[in-house]
Design a protein that fits this description.
Blueprint: E1 4-7, E2 10-13, E3 20-22, E4 27-28, H1 29-38, H2 40-47, E5 53-56, E6 66-68, E7 81-84, E8 91-94, H3 99-106, E9 110-114, E10 124-134, H4 140-156, E11 162-165, E12 171-181, H5 182-199, E13 204-205, E14 217-220, E15 230-231, E16 247-248, H6 250-255, H7 266-276, H8 281-285
Parallel strand pairs: 13-14
Antiparallel strand pairs: 1-2, 3-4, 5-6, 5-9, 7-8, 9-15, 10-12, 10-14, 11-12, 11-16
Helix pairs in contact: 1-3
Length: about 290
């Protein structure tokens, strides 16, 4: 029988705690839930008031995966939701606002993905994002080179950039903004991606076509579109091992010479939070929010 626990006054059924989710490391569902519980502070801050899309992988990264935006059947009535515009008409999505909701969602075995805008201002982005995706044989080392170029270019426009690993192969760059229409942010991000390609033609490509990407870094600007989402800071990823989309310092980015230096597993995050705090805190407090030209 699945154990029932109480979280902040809410009764939750947490199932299959001994089930191995990440076979390469023997990481179990119980360990996954423990990770989300102990990382709840910063994770909830980045999830707060943002409609969540789930990438679920209940049988591990090698099993079936499915992306879900709508409220799942059986969602407890106390889990908050928000009406969100979609191309087919408005729909409701989950808001993970508290620890109980986080543990309920984590029990589904999921990656968390969120848009660049908040539920009460859909389509008005308060952050800009670049997803730096390397095409083999390029890897995160080349992504770091591009990230530094983009940081300096954004700084020239008065914008502050922060970095995190994607938890997969590349890097994400994020910049806090005064709320701005997503269309305007998308156009600005695309222009910068094109500028990066012009300035670093042997290293950068701004178009998605696979044939253009071997050995280069794809500067994906498309996640600034209102309909798109990005892996939330501190989410686990459906990879062979329990890798995390982890904030990194610019010193780590600048000094990276081996892709393994920027791979962070679940057990590395608590020590990093103790050492650095939340490196992406300015995205929440918006104390360094800028305005795109």
């Amino acid at each position: 029988m699945a154990p029932i626990t109480e979280v902040e006054g809410r009764r939750l059924t947490l199932s299959n705690l001994d089930k191995v989710i990440y076979p390469a490391s023997g990481f179990t569902k119980g360990e996954l839930l423990h990770y989300y519980a102990t990382t709840a502070g910063p994770l909830l801050a980045h999830l707060y008031n943002r409609p969540v899309s789930f990438l679920r992988y209940p049988d591990g990264p090698d099993g079936q995966r499915f992306f879900a935006k709508n409220v799942p059947p059986g969602t407890p009535t106390w889990v908050k939701t928000a009406q969100v515009p979609h191309s087919q008409g408005p729909a409701r999505q989950i808001l993970v606002q508290d620890l109980a909701s986080l543990m309920w969602a984590a029990n589904l075995v999921t990656e968390f993905h969120t848009p660049q805008w908040q539920a009460d201002a859909p389509g008005r982005a308060d952050r800009l994002v670049f997803d730096l995706d390397p095409g083999a044989p390029a890897d995160v080392v080349q992504c770091c080179e591009v990230a530094v170029w983009l940081r300096e270019r954004l700084a020239a426009d008065g914008l502050h950039a922060y970095a995190k690993t994607s938890g997969s192969k590349g890097l994400h760059l994020l910049t806090p903004l005064e709320p701005t229409p997503s269309e305007q942010v998308s156009a600005y991000a695309k222009a910068l991606a094109q500028e990066a390609e012009a300035d670093l033609p042997g290293l950068v490509v701004h178009r998605m076509a696979r044939k253009l990407r071997p050995g280069k870094v794809f500067v994906d600007h498309s996640q600034n579109a209102a309909a798109k989402t990005t892996a939330t800071p501190y989410t686990l990823r459906a990879r062979p091992e329990p890798t995390v989309s982890a904030p990194v310092t610019w010193a780590e980015v600048e000094s990276c010479t081996d892709a393994r230096e920027l791979v962070f597993l679940a057990d590395a995050i608590a020590p990093r939070l103790e050492r650095y705090g939340d490196l992406l805190g300015p995205l929440i407090n918006l104390n360094r929010a800028g305005r795109i030209p």
